[in-house]
Amino acid sequence: MNPCNQTSGNSTLLSSPTSSVAGIVFLLLAALIGLPGNFFVIWSILWKMKPSHRSVTCILVLNLAVADGVVLLLTPFFILFLTFKNWLFGAAICKGVYYICCVNMFASIFIITLMSVDRCLAVNKPYFSQAIRKKHLVVKILTGIWLAASMLSAPAFLFRQVLKDPFLGHHICEPCHTRPGLAIFHFTLETVVAFVIPFTIILGCYSAILIRLRGVRRRQGARTEKLIVAIVICFVVLWLPYHVVNMIQVASNMASGKTADQLSQAWKSGRAGATALAFLSSSINPVLYVFAAGNLIKTSGANFIAQFFEGASEGLAKRTPSLKNLAKDSVVVVPGAAVILEEQPLGGCDGLD
Question: Can you give the pTM of this predicted structure?
């Protein structure tokens, strides 16, 4: 029997009122905070900076803000779904919305991972970093990231269907895997590529950065260490629940009997809240830009984002001549945080009109 026809046993979001309410709350917070924040970042870079002054970090931050902003534009679909317990928009929008959402979420995570590698090289291999940090190269890498995200999101388009619950009469937009092996492949791929590998790289990069920063003046080093620890914690808090639910769903497809039923109920109960929590990762970066910018908001007003990426050379740049030569972009951005590790006098996102 085709499991896609058994929608009463397949309902993901309608089985747990608590998860649905939590999902609505998280999605509303993400939209209210993240939409204006990310569009402000986009506006600042595109309209408050001269094109010739947009550095590598500016290009990365702009792409990250676009990816996060597009994801957050889709929140009304999910909020209405959870509110009315019914998918109102048809099969084409079901597939399209989830595909676009996945593309931008993959791209966001990959861009954040690239930023982590970039910062690690800038701190630990400054000469090499300076030699390879070229705009044309980062544009090619970003093109590859968006293409990879588009391909990796194909399962979201292929497997999503609008199913009807024969008892409640509700329509549900959810993945429909005709065989357990497809579900195992789908969610394992998503978790490994979008969490395990990026998190391993991010953790490795910031561990190397922390080791390198041990010799910086105690006051600055201590503050940076706390912020980097917060970076890792935010990444885990916002994304781990979603991928735990993925792995529970994989386990339910590998198990049988009562165990499979219990695992199935567990992932159904947690999916809505965990997915909505992951949306917060797209909204929190602009908040932390504000936090890291400090007094620049008072002195620069709406231009503070531009000033945020400018700065005056301090910290590591004062320690070695090689790092003094790195007058380019020393911003750390990961899911949940943005931190200036070293400030630069000549580069960054400067060039206010």
Answer: 0.82
